[in-house]
């Protein structure tokens, strides 16, 4: 039956769930290449979903910090893009159910939100919660992207890809959720795509595809990849053309390739920050990369407009 807690409304309690996994992503913290966001968009666009619970965004989100978009036309406001923080039931390609929690990262009441999510996890019998996002790294787009992992319980994951450095990082709801779940005895892990730093500010589908494959391998879910793989192929082609047309960026990529290849044979387990050897500094390549990204975005927009042109159909 539908019910309401302080922060969420349970719209429909799904039946027949047997220890599902929960995938979560929140818009607001670091997500290089929009790796996690692109994965979530892809899952929502390609799989059957139904809303299980809606969170009270009026209580959790500061609209003045992230103003929702409104559409004005014909002398009047026509539409309002209201933010949604929603828990959905999703079914993979063979009908296996899992849960997906996504939306804007709460600006306030983090502990209350985490407590509410934990309540849903216990109520729905979730066996494993998985956060997804991307981080910028000094890696080239011409080499396979890798995924770093972290877990809130020793032995939950293979140690080979676990992050093994000590860092102090800005807090975020996804990390707090993983931490609090561990304290309350619930398993949670993070899948982190390492995205080329010069593509971190652009949408990079290859990073989302890398997370999708890692998610499938971790959970056994059969997730569709065709559309995402094609988007990744098109974007990689655009990047290749832009790099070939810019000598400075090509030099940066070549230096990153050399660094990547030098470390490929060594122990790079969990390395968030690779040693910088013979790679230009951010100041040295900043202007070139800004121009590169602007040209890449312009090219992508042009291709999108061409795809939308009825005359091309």
UniProtKB/TrEMBL annotation:
**Which InterPro entries does the entry mention?**
Proteasome_assmbl_chaperone_2 (IPR019151), PSMG2_sf (IPR038389), Rv2714-like (IPR008492)
Q: Which domain of life is it from?
A: Bacteria
The residue ranges flagged as biased composition, category Acidic residues, are: 298-313
Quick one: where's region Disordered?
294-313
Which protein are we looking at? PAC2 family protein
